[in-house]
Amino acid sequence: MLKNMSRSQKLILFVIVITMIALIVLMIFNNNNNKQEKKVEVINVVDRVNTRDEYYNVETCATKFFLYYSGAYNNDDIKYNNNTNSDNNNLSRLQDLYDFFDKEYIEKYEITKTNLSEKIPQISADVMWIDDIYRLQKRGDFSLYLVNASVVKKSVREDTKLNLLIKINESDKTFSVYLDNYIKEMEYDKLQIGDKKNIKLNNISNNLLGIYSPVYLVTDDTYAKDLYDDYINTCLYDKSRAYDLLDDSVKKEKFPTLDSYENYLKENTSNMIINKFKSYSRIEEDGYVKYTCVDSKGNMYVFRETAPNKYTVVI
To answer: How far apart are the first and last CA of the chain?
Structure first.
């Protein structure tokens, strides 16, 4: 066949063959690139959240959920409009709460908007303190966190534990929640730092409530003030926890018992409310970072921080 072809025809055929080979090579190259792009970062080792930005983002999601959770049962108007019909108002709050839960959690425990009040335990709390945040899994844009928290009613001395499992999609800025019954059933509460756990992370259903505004590059100024505010608020709402935050040296020298510390707070609470955060200094020490905060009256609070929001305080 080639013998009967003219020189120009042979040249055209040669160009076509070369072009087809080039296209095939290009397609293979692009396919390999696509496969590489589809590879996602996977971290399946349990670890405490040790960066400010990550901590603040999880804290933001947990706090938003808590406000709706506590508000649904406490008749608080934090996120809701007043309604003259109390029954309708409570139903609306519960239906809002439903939207926070992960689809897997809802299906597993057969939760609906009408039976949610029977399926979800009620809480009576005004304030939530986060004790620890652990990252259990990270797969690309999805991460799963175990949040150990305590909630307290202002009029009650003792606090109650509240554990949450929070899944975050960083690209969509969405999150969903699982409660303690799921955490215990999956034995996530038994995981320790360094444990490996492969957890499938499904998509988060779109809703108007499970969204958050991400925090980037938390500054020392912001962080120092947040440490100060956290301690002052703890003094106002949870004296027992505030006592636990005191550095051992302070307990030994000034407040050997909780009662002695509470007497101190009774005499100084009004000043704590009036006085405002003024300035701070930051020094890296061996094993911790020292933030020395000064209020508008010159009172000093020295925070010894070992991880985001993990500290003891010297007063």
So the answer is: 97
Which residue is listed with tokens 């040790």?
A: 50
Higher local confidence (pLDDT), 133 or 29:
133
Q: What is the DSSP string of 125-187?
A: -SEEEEEEEEEEEEETTEEEEEEEEEEE-TT-SS-EEEEEEEEEETTTTEEEEE-HHHHHHTT
Of 168, 190, 212, which closes a domain? Answer: 190
| Domain-embedded: residue 148 | yes
Q: Rounded mean pLDDT of the chain? A: 87
Which CATH number covers residue 170?
Answer: 3.10.450
Residue 207 covered by a domain: no
Q: Which residue range is the domain that position 74 belongs to?
A: 47-190
Phi, psi angle pair for 209, to nearest 5°? -100, -40
Tell whether the torsion through CA atoms of 32, 35, 40 and 42 is positive or negative: negative
Whether residue 143 lies inside any domain: the answer is yes
Final residue of a structural domain among 141, 175, 190: 190
What dihedral do alpha carbons 214, 128, 114, 184 form, nearest 10°?
90
Is it the case that residue 87 has pLDDT exceeding 60? no
Same domain, 179 and 266: no
Distance between alpha carbon 11 and the CA centroid of its chain, in Å?
66
Name the band, by pLDDT with cuts 50, 70 and 90, for residue 135: very high
Does 82 reside within a domain? yes
- 299 CB neighbour count, 10 Å cutoff: 14
The band of 176, judged by pLDDT with boundaries at 50, 70 and 90, is: very high
Crossing angle of helices 86-98 and 52-74, in 10° steps, is 150
Q: Are 277 and 225 in contact (CB under 8 A)?
A: yes
Provide the whole-model pTM: 0.81
Segment 148-163 shows an average pLDDT of 82
Question: 29-76: per-residue pLDDT in tens?
Answer: 666 555 444 566 788 899 999 999 999 999 999 999 999 998 887 755
CA 85 to chain centre: 34
> For residue 313, what are the β-bridge partners?
246, 303
